[in-house]
């Protein structure tokens, strides 16, 4: 009995505890929100209101659907330029050369106009030629021959000595060398030209200018951007191409230069262009790497047929140092011609003589400025005239 009483008391206590816990919670829920919090309440649904029926809309009742069309991108094709003819370019650009050679020409003329050409005068002439980068060996030969002529012929006037000096300088440039670019198509395929040289010598620019020279002379051209080392080079070349309506074959950045060159010639054959001009990269830090790369480009291109012209681009402002670098290229590929760039920016135009003598390769073109048509076929006599400047 006692147990029953105890159990009943326990039950009562438990029930009272449970009620005490639940009631305050329920109260708390009923309290209005405190502070600044706003509660958005769902509007009460009027259960008595009839349901809203949305009648189906027939097509013809719909307002016309306005579809805003994105304007088709209009391809603005650059106007195709007509490059200047190449004949007589060197004469036209002569001022560029003589401006930078002023000291050279004037220095020589002032010595030559002396009444008597004594030992000092001949030494001065020698020094002027050496300063103009003609090279020691070539200078000695030129001065020796001139002295002999003056002595034997008894030359008197400055004008006569100047004319004879011009002849000697021209002779030193071996005017009989073949300077024609081998770019004509043959055997049902385009002529293929490869352009090599150290970075910054002006390779890409010169490729573009050469394309214009060829187009001015009536040929069709395709560019191969095998300088995949410098990403901007391909872009640069493509821009040159667009300006004259020439296609450019390029690969992804860092692509194998040999495969880009191969594809360029393949494309050139397909579309039947006259000449394919291939730009290459010229890292000289590692001679073996350079040899491998250029050698491979040449070998792979030659799967289509021989490379007809390999031009070495040399920066005239690098003087005799540039010559040493140039030699590396002649060891790697069979260079058939030299393009001397930036002759407008140096007083050392005599480098042309040194280049030909040292490399035994004809200078075929000279760069005389940054303009698109500032590249001229090299003509020894006209060049020497510009070098000496003004008539005596
Ligand atoms: N004044 C002058 N500048 C030139 C001449 N030829 C090229 N240049 C400039 O030389 C600079 C280098 O030319 P690039 O064609 O980019 O040289 P690159 O050899 O292709 O260089 P990489 O692509 O780095 O191998 C450019 O600013 C050209 O405009 C020239 O005959 N005269």
Protein described:
By secondary structure, the protein is an alpha/beta fold. Among the domains are: 89-172, Four Helix Bundle (Hemerythrin (Met), subunit A) (Up-down Bundle); 191-335, 3-Layer(aba) Sandwich (Rossmann fold), CATH 3.40.50. 48% of the residues lie in helices and 11% in strands. The protein contains 14 helices and 8 strands. Strands 3-2-4-1-5-6-7-8 form an 8-stranded mixed beta sheet, with helices on both faces. Helix 9 links the parallel strand 2 and strand 3. Helix 6 crosses helix 7. The model is unreliable at 21-49 (pLDDT under 50). Residues 197, 199-205, 227, 230, 233, 281-282, 341-342, 344-345, 367-370, 374 line the site of guanosine-5'-triphosphate (GTP).
From the structure above, extract its key features.
single chain, 392 residues, alpha/beta, Four Helix Bundle (Hemerythrin (Met), subunit A), Rossmann fold, eight-stranded mixed beta sheet, 14 helices, 8 strands, 11% strand, binds guanosine-5'-triphosphate
Please report the number of helical segments: 14
| Parts with pLDDT < 50 across at least 5 consecutive residues | 21-49
Kindly state the number of beta strands: 8
Q: What is the general shape? A: elongated
User: Which small molecules are bound?
Assistant: guanosine-5'-triphosphate
Helical fraction equals 40-55%
CATH second-level architecture of the domain at 191-335: 3-Layer(aba) Sandwich
The N- to C-terminal Cα distance equals 150 Å
Helix and strand element order: HHHHHHHEHEHEHEHEHEHEEH
CATH class of the domain at 191-335: Alpha Beta
What fraction of the residues are assigned to beta strands by DSSP?
Answer: 5-15%
Q: List the strand order in the largest sheet.
A: 3-2-4-1-5-6-7-8
Please give the largest β-sheet: 8 strands, mixed
Rounded to the nearest angstrom, the radius of gyration is 41 Å
Enzyme class: hydrolase
GO molecular function: GTP binding; GTPase activity; signal recognition particle binding
Subcellular location: Cell membrane; Cytoplasm
EC number: 3.6.5.4
């Amino acid at each position: 009995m006692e147990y029953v009483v105890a159990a009943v008391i326990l039950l009562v206590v438990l029930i009272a505890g449970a009620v005490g816990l639940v009631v305050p919670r329920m109260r708390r829920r009923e309290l209005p929100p405190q502070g600044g919090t706003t509660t958005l309440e769902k509007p009460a649904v009027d259960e008595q209101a009839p349901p809203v029926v949305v009648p189906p809309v027939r097509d013809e009742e719909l307002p016309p659907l306005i579809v805003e069309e994105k304007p088709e991108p209009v391809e603005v094709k650059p106007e195709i330029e007509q490059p200047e003819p190449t004949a007589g370019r060197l004469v036209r650009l002569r001022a560029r050369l003589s401006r930078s050679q002023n000291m050279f020409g004037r220095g020589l003329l002032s010595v030559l106009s002396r009444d008597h050409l004594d030992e000092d005068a001949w030494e001065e002439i020698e020094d002027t030629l050496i300063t103009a980068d003609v090279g020691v060996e070539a200078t000695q030969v030129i001065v020796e021959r001139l002295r002999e002529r003056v002595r034997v012929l008894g030359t008197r006037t400055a004008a006569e000595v100047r004319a004879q000096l011009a002849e000697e300088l021209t002779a030193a440039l071996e005017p009989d060398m073949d300077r024609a670019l081998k770019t004509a198509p043959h055997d049902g395929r385009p002529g293929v030209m490869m352009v090599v040289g150290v970075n910054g010598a002006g390779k890409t620019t010169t490729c573009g200018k050469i394309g214009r020279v060829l187009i001015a002379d009536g040929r069709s051209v395709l560019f191969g951007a095998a300088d995949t080392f410098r990403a901007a080079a391909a872009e640069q070349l493509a821009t040159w191409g667009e300006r004259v309506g020439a296609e450019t074959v390029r690969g992804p950045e860092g692509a194998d230069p040999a495969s880009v060159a191969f594809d360029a010639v393949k494309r050139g054959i397909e579309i039947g262009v006259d000449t394919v001009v291939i730009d290459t990269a010229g890292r000289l830090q590692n001679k073996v790497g350079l040899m491998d790369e250029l050698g491979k480009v040449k070998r792979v291109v030659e799967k289509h047929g021989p490379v007809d012209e390999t031009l070495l681009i040399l920066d005239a402002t690098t003087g005799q140092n540039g010559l040493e670098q140039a030699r590396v290229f002649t060891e790697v590929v069979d260079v058939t011609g030299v393009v001397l760039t930036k002759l407008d920016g140096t007083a050392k135009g005599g480098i042309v003589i040194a280049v030909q003598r040292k490399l035994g390769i004809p200078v075929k073109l000279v760069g005389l400025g940054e303009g698109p048509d500032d590249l001229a076929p090299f003509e020894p006599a006209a060049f020497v005239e510009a070098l000496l400047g003004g008539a005596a």
